[in-house]
Amino acid sequence: MKKENLVSVPFMVLGIVFCVCLVAANLLETKVVQLGPIAVTAGLIVFPVSYIINDCIAEVWGFRKARLIIWMGFLMNFMTVALGQLAVALPAAPFWEGEAGFNFVFGMAPRIAAASLLAFLAGSFINAYVMSRMKLSSQGKHFSARAILSTVYGESADSLIFFPLAFGGLMPLPELGKMMLVQVALKTMYEIIVLPVTVRVVRYIKRIDGTDTYDENISYNILKINEL
Question: To bridge 150 with a disulfide, which of 3, 130, 196, 204 should be the other Cys (CB 3.0-4.6 Å)?
Answer without folding.
Answer: 130
